[in-house]
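Morning run. Coffee first, then this:
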Amino acid sequence: MLSWALFFLVFSLVAAVFGFGGLAAASAGFAQICFYIFLALFIVSFLVGLARGGDRFIK
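And here it is:
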C-alpha cells in the first residue's frame, strides 16, 4: 500500500511540473488517501501485536 502512495506522489509531482493541475491534484489526493489507509493499518497491527504479547518472537 505504501508503494502505491509513493507512486501517486511521484506521479502527481511530475504532473505538476508539466502543468496538469487537475491530474496532479487527483493523484496527490489518492496518494494522501493511500497513506492514511497505510497508517491506520499500521497502528491497528501494532496494537494487535501488543495485545497478543508484544515481542515474544524477538529473541
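Helices lie at 2-18, 21-51. Good start to the day.
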